[in-house]
Design brief:
By secondary structure, this protein is mostly helical. The protein contains 24 helices and two strands. Helix 10 runs antiparallel to helix 11.
Amino acid sequence: MSTFGRKTHSATRGGQTVLKALTWAIPLLFLVIFFYQPMAAIIRLVFAEQFSGGWQLINAGDILRPLEFTFSQAALSTLLTLLLGIPAAYLFSHYKFAGKNLLNLVSTLPFILPTVVVAAGFNALLGPRGLLNLGLMGLFELNEAPIRFVNSIGAILVVHVFYNITIVIRIVSNAMASLDQRLAQAAKTLGATPMKVLTEITLPLLTPAVLSATLLVFLFDFTSFGVILLMGGPGMNTIEVAIYKQVFFNLNLPLAGLLSIVQLVITFGVTILYNRVTHRNPAGRLQHIEPITPVAPKTRGAKAAIFVLVVLLLLFIVSPMAALVGRSFSQLEPARGEGGDFRAGISLAYYRELFSNRQDSLFYVPPLLAIKNSLVYALATIGITLPLGFLLAYALNQKGRWGNWVEPVIMLPLGASAVTLGLGLLVVFYTQNSLFQTLPLLVPIAHSLIALPFVVRILMPALGKIPGSLRDAARSLGASPRQVIREIDMPLLFRSAVASAIFAFTISVGEFGASSFIASPTNPTIPVAIYRYISQPGGLNYGQALAMSSILLVTCLLGVMLIEKTRIPGEEVF
């Protein structure tokens, strides 16, 4: 090779080395500043010198009681989610039936919905002023609501199952669909009974997927905040809710920090275990010669099971959302101070009241301002998350020997609670001279940290499917690394990029936990504004919460539909 050729080759390799270093360095710097620094600040807060004399003021029960309740409700919620989700996953993977695409879309909706919208939906259906209770009270002339759903452990469990059933259906159904039928057929020809095939072949192959779904559902239930705050009773405090109350009601930051440390240790452990399990799960990554092909049900038992499960899923998922929208247009009770000439019926009153401040409240925020704030924050979240997601996807697809160590560091924000994240950002950046105190930058940054792991999980498989021969051919024709990315990768990744952007947008619009800490009182997001309405007494405030929740529901529904249209088949975020 000539001297010129060696120099050119060396320069090319040097450019590629610099590019690889940047793909790791930029996202890691972002995570260090805005994730790991706040987590370290919480630890410093707990062990600060000014607090060293206050340890005796902390009662062990202040930590053990919320920890015990957090574990118990998360374990029960996970078990119930598996009991409903695994049969539904079998339904999706083994059978084809009328309305399957619609059911697939409907089953995706819960995971993307904001907590306040789900809480408002179940309130509209089963709450004290919900459709069922008002109907029963009118039918039987009762003075009190006969169904006591809100402020109960049952409400927490039901809403958690509603939220996380999508995870089990997607992960387990993908694993079931990718099983090689030849293995079971070979076992049957050797004399294995159906039970033997199930226990010796099918279940071992499905165990990584089921375990992966179990860990992820448990993680989300363990870090649940809005569901407990809005649907649980006053004495039902998880670690998340306890942190929130210690900060905003008791002004006890050290105890809140100590609770956050306990939670971080547990959630980080579960996250690392989840990452290891997902790497062992072959679903969606192996090419099988003879995967399971969905067929139309033939026996009466199969048809009956499909009918029951479809009706159950539709009622479970659709009825709260339908009640929410229907209740937002139905004025069934007078507002405080309204005269005796009130007539119940269909009305736009709650939507009109969103734009008036009848009680001259100092904390009134026009809904258009909350909507504008949420849209601006969501667009900023896309602008932050998408470039970082591309860099991380490239880095993880070419990770080399250090990638196995760095990948858990990058994916750990998946296991951090939004409340703990909000507390850490509050402690670090809301100082007297901080730029972030005057500029609303922290909200989209917090939303980006929450959305980033999901965006990476969308982009990574799509990037891994690009044939290496295309890049090699481009390089052999003299294309630079940037030209290869621009001319080959970007066109092929367009659909995944759109799906990632929509996913980040919907997460940002509906995020509540971190926003409740760091959003300005005069510039709230839509979920924070909805929580304000829900937390105030009176039928009018309740109706306004329903109206704004319905607007947010329609926004998220459109987002889910766009994600499903742009998502490449087999591409998942879990």
